[in-house]
Input
Amino acid sequence: MFRRQLFVVSLVSALGFSGSVQATPAVGLKAPEFSLTDTSGKTVRLSDYRGKHVVLEWVNPGCPYVRKHYNTANMQGTQKEVTGKGVVWLAINSTAESHPDYLAPPQLARWMAGQNAVPTSTLMDEDGTVGKAYGARTTPHLYIVNPAGVLVYAGGIDSIPSARADDVKTAVNYVKQSIEDSLAGKPLRNAVTRPYGCSIKYKS
Amino acid sequence: MTLQLMIPASLRALLLVFACAGHALVGAQAASALTATAVVTTNQVRAELIAHAPDGADAGKTVWVGLQLAHKPEWHTYWKNPGDSGLPTELNWSLPEGVSAGAIAWPMPKKIPIGNLANYGYEGTVLLAVPLTITAAFKPALLSGDIEIRLKANWLVCKQECIPEEGSFVLRLPVRSSVAGNAAAFDAAARAVPLALTYTPRSGVTVDGNQIQLAVYGLPLAAHGKALGFFPETPEVIETAGQWTQSWDGAVWRARVPLSAQRSNSPALMPVVLGLGTQGYRVELPVTGAWPQVTTPAQVVPAVLRTPAATVPPLGFWAALVGALLGGLILNLMPCVFPVLAIKVLGFARHSHNQSVRRLNGLAYSAGVLLSFLALGALVLGLRSAGESLGWGFQLQEPAVVAALALLFTLIALNLSGVFEFASVLPSSVASLQARRPMVDAFLTGVLAVAIASPCTAPFMGAALGLAIALPTVEALAIFAALGVGFALPYLLASWLPAVARALPRPGPWMETLRRLLAFPMYATVAWLVWVLGQQSGIDGAGALLVLLIAMALLIWTMGLRGRSRLALGSASVLVFAALAWGIGPYVTQPLQQGANVQAADGWEAWEPGRVEQLLARGEPVFVDFTAAWCVTCQYNKKTTLENRDVLADLAARKVRLLRADWTRRDPAITAALRQLGRNGVPVYVLYQSGKPPVLMSEILSAREVRAVLAQLPAS
Output
């Protein structure tokens, strides 16, 4: 029986059910690898985009702060601008299935399409494992991974934490700024900023 | 709000838009009609602008005004530091000339956990009070003689969902008469504001790695020895929901609080609030020690790391095959394989009288080796496609596998020592099967040889395996097959060429002696495996494994007894073994505390992701030793070359930073770093310099090689 226990333990960990979730990564360290399915069921891995900048956007259409940036077309404009520079944009929804904000993949895809959003992929993380691995706390919460797979930016979409749509015009867009800096090979002016918005509705 | 929860999200989004529009409308009406609207009610809160001016609002008087938020059950708004999410309530005043508003006197908040996150905020009813200063410059309105106080407030109210709300408020405050109707509310609010502690110079915050240590002197006697609440006013510094500890050191309150890994504030002064029940104490603590640096790696990632393919020296597929073949050959001479090699020689000697049996055995053994290598290759590739970060030797990263191997090797050693014969333990049919089918035995020996060879990475093997892991499946399997062929080749030759076979010694009584002798390398292997497990699971795990090994030896011995004693002792020892496996078995597999097995030996620091880039950015060259406790080659190199006095002197002279990446347990970050170097196993020795491609050194590291590489660095 002991042997069998050993075998099961080793099999379980060899197959990776123990996961590779570590402590929240700091900026400047390796970005945690993940594998999620997009709204059409296709598997997407972070490592698929090794060699490119990758923006991770935590999204939840039920959150007024997310809607602030979509209603003002700020998020879509940022997506369009940076993907135009060869950057990959992955929108991730970590809302638990049990939460009223949860949108099933087709509904989320429809919402994104209705917003004219242009992420490279929209990914489902109902279990919240990827969100927790990155220490994502709010929607929106944005991260940038550089071509070497290192986390270079963590924080808010912009510099004015408010729900007021008007503030978008005067705020500094940290994602555009960081992509600009990183592509130019310069140190980021703001590598860590304050994410603001609703808390992510993680599965409890 | 249960009602709201039942409405579908999309519909609710629409309702929220209406709700927000509604609030704007309240404000607009108030502004246009100039009606004194002091109350705004939403579905979540009732917000009211109230005032307290018991002595009137003449020049020179201080008058209190405030926004009173009464939350519906379970809803909350936020403190000045909202914690992991949320936003503090904002008050924007429009006041007549000569009247100015101070800052919000924030009452003590409550820590509100939400799953793995936490916020600081208020539930129930809270009054955010603000002092108004009225100077002589204030001229009351001609007609009314009132002060018109206008407030535009924004608050974020959350339960599970969050709703940003706003309200416009107007209040007229008579200058000459007393307004004291809200005295009780303002009194309560004043009592809820934390008391300022007199600052003593010894109080402060010390940054210590990834946490801060707080020392607070001068707390009142009533608080001594009690557990206090901790609320830092500066947002984005600590891990709000993190595990923190506190203790009393006489009259001094001490705490250790983890820092947020994604900290965006590095304050020089941290105002904090400590709570004892409803009573708060506020103190501003100066910060000493350096905040952990936030690296800006965009600038420092060496060009070579940006294109991982470039780090693999262009090694053709055929060259890799030849390398794998040679690597497999040399693998036979590695210390972990040698005992098996010797047993195999014994086997050949036993059957040397029969040419055809020998040939068949040679083929069976080779098939066992080849199929095992292919199976391992398929497993590695399969897991690679499943997104698992694995590398060569990964089996030994699992304490359970190490323990199982130790049990197996003890069994083999006991057999070699003559404690038992398989015939007396196994049912006679199985034993005779093994005797009658030596081919099966030879095949299984091949499988075993591969299992124990895996921790030893021979020269040539590293590069070939690294390539294999990046190749398409068929080519990758071909590399594994070439390794197997190389590994099996010596036996195949010996079994087929009479000349080689003739060179083997004749069978005789010496074989029994040799067999007993060969038990000792097996015991030595067990000792090594116990040591590896000690690295993984600690001294308790290693101790538990030793006890289990002894219990197994007892069990095996009793199986060899006869008659009644076999039944009695046998069943007793089965029970003993089962009880021990149940009782102490878990110690064997329990993981050590994170990082406990990466001790910073003198001069060496533990590798972590991003550390190399960080050091390179400072212009320091970096030498990384990718190692693992179960990797024999690694230990050999460590004891010889890396502790060589001349090598150490050269490293010190060139100010090379030494990092050690310990792969004893599974570590995806190290696996990724190895992959960036085009490798898939340890040992790997690499020298990084800013602006140059990393220099990879041989797996069997010589002092001469390290010194030659170092000689190209400028001495400083």
User: Anything to note?
Assistant: Chain B touches chain A through 80 residues (CB under 8 Å). Chain B has a mean pLDDT of 78. Residues 510-559 of chain B form the longest helix (50 residues).
